[in-house]
Amino acid sequence: MLFIMSKNISLDDIASLAKRRGFIYQGSEIYGGLAGTWDYGPLGVTLKRNLVNAWWKFFVESRDDMYGIDSAILMNPKVWIASGHVAGFTDPLIEDVKTKKRYRLDHLLEDAGVDVKGMDLAAMVAAIQEKGVKSPDGNELGNPANFNMLFRTSIGAVEDEASTVYLRGETAQGMFTNFKNVVDSFYPDLPFGVAQVGKAFRNEISPRDFIFRVREFEIAEFEYFINPENWEAEFEKWRVAMHQWCEEILGLPAEKVHELEVSKEDRAHYSKRTIDFEFDFPFGKKELYGLAYRTDFDLNNHQRDSGKNLEYRPKDGSPAFVPHVIEPTFGVDRTLMAVLCNSYTEDEVNGEKRIFLKLPKHLAPVKACVSPLLKNKPELAAKAREVYSMLKKEIGVVMWDDNGNIGKRYRRQDEIGTPACIVIDFQTLEDGTVTVRDRDTAQQTRVSISELENTIA
Ligand code: GAP
Fold it and tell me: Torsions phi, psi of 88, nearest 5?
């Protein structure tokens, strides 16, 4: 008997399961952590890899108009001057005048119920005064400023202004700086895209909400180079594809994914139109992805600052021009978090509460678990090992578990979202069948070993 319980899931539920079951740990935990950093454990890294592979397959490999790259994290600092990040990649900051702790001004206002859409720094400071908002420690706030989020480091043996480089704040710039390389190597027809997945770094003023807002994270994104005449149709095409990705590949219900048309005042400096894709996280409706029309802002600036011609010469002999760009961008960590939040389920099986991750099966980090019914029966253990080795060869990520009783093993696998648990019992020795228990229904069926691979696939 199965009974699904409706409960408001908290971020603590998700974070505690993620830690308990080896998905995500606090970064540098044994030293008390490092704010805004998280480490992926054995199951988290597999889930993240499955997500990235699915993204690459959906947006890159399955298409003829997409070119993948993997550019260096450290880039010539002129890249970040041309892109506008050195001057304008900022968040509004304000200080607790007593403790000197610094906060994101817009977050403090949002927490106080103020809608900050369209507000600049001065308007936010005025709102703080008008509403009498204090710091979380109850003190007065002062010294507002725009804080640049690029992490600086230095390259080479001498540390001075000339050696300053930045950890990349977005992966996109690698696509712009390699635009000419890809055109020269492949001479693709327009429109075409250049994609990559990789780490980005932002010195967030107040990282929060588990892996939602962190200082080191992964972005999967592409720059889709177009003729500006077609920008609206191309924008629409990618808007639809992003929803398809959310629903068909990630299994996120359409009613939990919302679009927010970002106002001119709130758009990034390079964008002429932006839609944020928001997801209903346990802590509210928050940005999951972005879709931006970046025009020719980046290529033009790089052309100006590098002195290299970054025009595209159409094959039909019409005049060369600097292409415009549509940019769908996907935070990988936020994707993982949305998938975890959406999959986290509590129900009752035969009167007993259980937690399980209803992950889409193609994303589950472990596809099946194999156990002998009894650990101390050598004939069962030997047969189970045989089945385990066979499946491991055929479907890859299979787990062995002979600890505790069968019920406990099922619970452990439920919590990590393993779609199938296979148990070898005495009947197996007689007729070559095993029990396969389904994660979602908790139903068991008998399947012959020769049919096992098909059943799981
Ligand atoms: N190239 C465009 C770009 O970087 P963005 O909206 O600044 O756009 C892209 O970032 C995506 O990266 C966001 O939609 C979000 O999913 C994710 N993201 C941004 N900041 C993040 C942070 N501090 N922690 C985790 N993910 C973040």
Answer: -130, 10
Strands 420-424 and 368-372: what pairing?
A: parallel
219 pocket-lining for ligand 1 (C-beta < 6 Å): yes
- Selection from 351, 317, 270 nearest residue 88 by Cα: 270
Distance 269 CA to ligand 1 centre (A): 15
| Contact predicate 276/128, CB 8 Å | no
pLDDT for 344-392, tens place per residue? Answer: 999 888 888 899 999 999 999 999 999 999 999 999 999 999 999 999 9
- End-to-end Cα separation, the chain, in angstroms: 26
389 phi/psi in degrees, rounded to 5: -65, -40
Query: To which residue do tokens 């099946």 refer?
Result: 368
282-297 tens-digit pLDDT: 999 999 999 999 999 9
Q: In what order do the strands lie in the sheet with 102-104?
A: 102-104, 90-96, 141-148
Q: Which of 59, 454, 37 is nearest to 51 (CA)?
A: 59
| Residues with Cβ within 8 Å of residue 83, at least 6 apart in sequence | 173, 176, 270, 298, 301, 302
Using DSSP's 3-state secondary structure scheme, residue 203 falls into: coil
Q: Is the CB of 287 within 6 Å of ligand 1?
A: yes
| Cα–Cα distance for residue pair 357/15, rounded to 1 Å | 13
Atom of ligand 1 nearest to the CA of 215: 23
Position 7 confidence tier, pLDDT thresholds 50, 70, 90: low
User: The pTM is what?
Assistant: 0.95
pLDDT attached to residue 162: 85
